[in-house]
Amino acid sequence: MHLPPLHRRRGFTLIEIMIVVAIIAILAAIAIPAFMKFQLRSRVSEARTNLASIRTAELAFASAADTFVAGAASPVADAALDPVRDVWVDNGGYSDMGWAPEGATLFNYKVVVAPAGCPAPGLMCNAFTAEAASDLDGDGALNYWGYVHTDPAGFAPNAVGCVGSGVYDPPSGTLTAQGRVGPCDASMGVHVF
Fold first, then answer.
1. Across residues 79-107, what is the average pLDDT?
2. Cα separations in angstroms, 115 against 24, 122, 186
3. Sign of the dihedral through C-alpha 32, 181, 96, 69
């Protein structure tokens, strides 16, 4: 029996295959977490965009009615938050201000107005907080984003997930004044998959 010369043999050795598999595993270990962070950032952009739209709708409504309007937790009850998109259901207030999201949402939205009891005869709502909450990564910890619009005296309503005095500013590490859509504290939007 005659074996072909070494330079004519075809195929890969077990060592060569194991090296290729190890290289692919290393690349996957680097790429998958980066992809998951990118995916989280794209999901969070829904909240930022919708909160900015709610702010615009509220300001437009107030320019005509001299008051802000509250929006109930929508599209689901606060206790039912999960990482799944929900079909939009206006549980109260959003159609009054002329706002609805485009399609199903990952976040639950809520608008709280102040002072308490407004609008009522002689008592107009002159401040509001808009919030977005979701459990984006399914870990049971809710992710809150918000916008605060204070009245001229600096008063803002207390919100469920956000503080009434501002939203978190990552560059300064502090709470900022009104006029900015952002996370409610340093841990919001920072998740490990």
1. 86
2. 59, 12, 28
3. positive
Cα separation of the two ends of the chain: 58
Please, what's the b/e burial string for 32-68 (b: 16 or more CB within 10 A of its CB; e: otherwise)?
A: eeeeeeeebeebbebbbebbebbbebbeebbeeeebb
Any idea what the Cα angle at residue 84 is, between residues 79 and 90, rounded to 5°? 60
User: Which among 89, 93, 183 is positioned nearest to 141, based on CA atoms?
Assistant: 183
pLDDT at position 169: 61
State if pTM tops 0.85.
no
H helix or E strand, kind and range, residue 56: helix 14-65
Q: What residue has token string 């998959």?
A: 193
> Percent of the chain having pLDDT more than 70?
73
